[in-house]
Amino acid sequence: MSAITPLMPRQKVPSLSVPLVGGGTWSLADQSPENFTMVVFYRGLHCPICGKYLKDLDTKLADFAKRGVNVVVVSSDGEDRATEAKAKWELENVDLGYGLDLDNAREWGLYISTSNGVTSSGYEEPAVFSEPGLFLVRPDGTLYFG
């Protein structure tokens, strides 16, 4: 396994394309925000802290849009778990991507964890999953903040 190389501001970010809960595909290459695209990586359905964070984020999407920021939320969960997370956490507005490839997660500099079993939420952690990260990407595809 290779070492994680951190992304650096003003450098191009890796490609990112994921299926969305409810249908369709989200691709970073297709984004044309006024200011930024905010990419939020979360651990998955098993993470109760992620659920609270994403519920709060979901209520603020209109504020981000007013400021010219597109938002997507992504995990390495499969479709069933991502669909359950969206329903359980009552995420009504956010684009929720799933199926993040772990090699792609490493390209973004995300840490990869292995399961510790069932979490406090009552859900089993996947055998392997990506950890959280938050990135602001300029319209030209370069990193502003990570």
Task: Describe the protein's architecture and organization.
The model has no long low-confidence stretch (mean pLDDT 93). The protein has helices spanning 48-59, 61-66, 79-88, 102-107, and strands spanning 17-19, 25-27, 36-41, 69-74, 95-97, 112-114, 128-130, 133-137, 143-145. The chain is globular and about 40 Å long. The protein is α/β, with parallel strands linked by helices. It has a single domain (17-145), classed as Glutaredoxin (3-Layer(aba) Sandwich), CATH 3.40.30. It has a five-stranded mixed β-sheet. The protein has a two-stranded antiparallel sheet with strand order 1-2. Strands 6-7 form a two-stranded antiparallel sheet. The chain starts with 16 loop residues before the first strand and ends with a strand. It has four helices and nine strands.
